[in-house]
Design goal:
- The protein is an alpha/beta fold and 358 residues long.
- It is built from eleven helices and 14 strands.
- The model has no long low-confidence stretch (mean pLDDT 92).
- Iron/sulfur cluster (SF4) binds next to loops.
- The site of iron/sulfur cluster has 12 residues, from loops.
Length: 358
């Protein structure tokens, strides 16, 4: 399953190992298996990432573990934050690839919601015309350890601020269903090891019908979000090159199957691009799809990307669009815009870094 690029001769990357790997490693050395549980508690509950700090393990075992494994594999290259509390972490992996992870704060009634937005690939093959992550295509899939490390680093940063990670969305760089096995395993580990309830996890896809139907059978209880961004097949093909090869009706039929099988309401993600997909007719077409799927519409204001020709609509125009969608009978909201200052659009921080390095 692992796609992480671990160089030969390096220590093993603990987060990327199968669940029982540490138990087997301990057994080979005549050590009891419960030490694996202790290590996991140190890492996931106490956020201790060095074996030397795992003080209830025997000293010689700590040294041996430190010689055999690294808990984390990435290096934090940059962290940027915005006044609203959003922060991004740029991680570099041992093969030189880099990915970004975002923490998005929000309120859920009286409760604070802290969401990690996870990347699943280095770059993205989908190539949405308005997205920084798609520029340059995909370099490789991430491994499950690399996905978990993103979540763990955000959880640790939140701990330090006296806050707690509550939600996760697979909406960062990459198409999660193109890295299917890793995405499914990461959903399971997020819930089992990091305590993020599966109903608080969202897998966002540009729409791969076969994988959506397969996901419906995984018993994950995760929310499925479809990155629709255009209400007609023709406009979608213009904005999302992959849509050329994927029939929109087949995507919507797969979403319907997901809803029927899991009972989980689908979210339709729709990024408003000024003068492109934000006309009144688009609002009505979008609402018709949402009503048919009994889906929730999540409207976002575009975060401009340097070098790309798309613009963010005015807030008044976005609100008028929202009202039209609702008037046509769909359940919809406009996501509060955060973090223009923090290179908020997907892939922006990585792109800025790469341009600067060059
Ligand atoms: S918007 Fe998502 S699917 Fe599209 S190119 Fe960017 S990362 Fe890939």
């Amino acid at each position: 399953m692992s796609a992480s690029a671990v160089e030969p001769g390096r220590r093993r990357f603990l987060l990327d190992e199968p669940e029982d790997a540490l138990v087997s490693w301990l057994a080979e050395r005549g050590r009891p298996g419960f030490h694996a549980r202790q290590v996991r508690d140190w890492v996931f509950e106490r956020r201790v990432f060095s074996f030397a700090g795992m003080t209830d393990l025997p000293g010689d075992l700590r040294a041996e573990l430190g010689g055999a494994f690294d808990v984390l594999a990435g290096k934090e290259v940059e962290r940027s934050s915005s006044p609203g509390g959003t922060f991004k972490i740029l991680l570099r992996w041992p093969d030189g690839a880099s990915t970004e992870t975002v923490m998005i704060p929000a309120r859920d009634g009286a409760r604070a919601r802290r969401t990690v937005c996870l990347s699943t690939q280095v770059g993205c093959a989908v190539g949405c015309r308005f997205c920084a992550s798609g520029i340059g295509g995909v370099r490789r899939d991430l491994g499950v350890g690399e996905v978990m490390e993103q979540a763990l680093r955000v959880a640790a940063a939140l701990d330090a601020a006296g806050e707690r990670l509550s939600h996760a969305v697979f909406m960062g760089m990459g198409e999660p269903l193109a890295n299917y096995a890793v995405t499914v395993e990461a959903v399971r580990r997020l819930s089992r090891w990091l305590g993020v309830g599966r109903r608080r996890i969202t897998v966002s896809t540009v729409g791969l019908p076969r994988q959506i139907v397969r996901l419906a059978g995984e018993d994950l209880s995760a929310t499925l979000a479809l990155s629709l961004h255009a209400p007609t097949a023709e406009l979608r093909r213009q904005l999302i090159p992959w849509a050329e090869a994927i029939d929109l009706d087949a995507v919507l039929a797969a979403c319907r199957r997901y809803y029927e099988r899991t009972g989980r309401q689908i979210t339709l993600e729709y990024c408003l691009l000024a003068g492109v997909n934000d006309e009144p007719a688009h609002a009505e077409q979008l609402a018709a799809i949402a009503v048919d799927l009994r889906a929730h519409v999540n409207l976002m204001m575009y975060n401009p990307v340097a070098g790309l020709p798309y613009e963010r609509p005015s807030r008044n125009r976005a609100i008028a669009f929202l009202k039209r969608v609702r008037a046509a009978g769909a359940d919809a909201h406009l996501r509060a815009s955060r973090g223009l200052e923090a290179d908020a659009a997907c892939g922006q921080l990585r792109r800025r870094h790469e341009l600067a390095t060059r």
